[in-house]
Specification:
Mean pLDDT: 91
Strand content: 15-25%
Number of strands: 10
Low-confidence stretches: none
Strand order of the largest sheet: 5-4-3-10-9
Order of helices and strands: HEEEHEEHEHEHEHEHEHH
Oligomer: single chain
Helix content: 25-40%
Largest sheet: 5 strands, parallel
Number of helices: 9
Amino acid sequence: MSTVMHPSAAINSDPLVIAGVEYHSRLLVGTGKYRDLEETRAATQASGAEMVTVAIRRTNIGQHANEPNLLDVISPQHYTLLPNTAGCYTADDAIRTCRLARELLDGHDLVKLEVLGDEKTLFPDIIQTLQATEVLVKDGFKIMVYTNDDPIIAKRFEELGCVAVMPLAAPIGSGLGIRNPYNILTIVENATVPILVDAGVGTASDAALAMELGCDGVLMNTAIAGARDPVMMASAMKKGIEAGREAYLAGRIPRKRFASASSPIEGTFF
């Protein structure tokens, strides 16, 4: 007799593994754009996230002694901190920022690398990002890299040694959702490292779609922090991620042009 695994058990036995560490939540969240640190704490807790990003150039984690410290509400004992290079427009700036993060966080080597190419769109500068990746990997960093949704480039970052590749779904903060699902699907199908959608998610259904495509996780900030009720939206995103992952594992029915009976008709008499 076959046994049916309860959905929660299936999720718990299906961890996200990044750089050898297991995470039960596939939602990663940012820590910027909230009204205050208390809202940051509450929304992060409601999201169920275990990994949170920290913009080193914009957030105080101890480098400014007289300012509120993010680590007072987001403790490294309870969350994996993911320092990021938000606001960097050159490889050199990004490299310096990663090294500063490692200094501030006592040798922490897991970072999110992003090198932007344009202030209006915040699209990545792929050439500069590739250059920074090569230097940082050789320097011992574990890189989760923000990139565009080009499958060729995504594979190149994997080959350079990134521990995760994070293609955008749409421009940062746009809330447009996944604009090129087939590109994301191709990236997922070709990957041997985790693929996490980064940027462009607007609501829980966008997060669910990313997971249904087979992505390993989703990173978001504006979609939660910019919501009318960030704490409630964080909870909604948590559920969207879980529902999308369960649907992916369950396997959706194929799309058909015409209807098919919901009850079997073979062997019945009319």
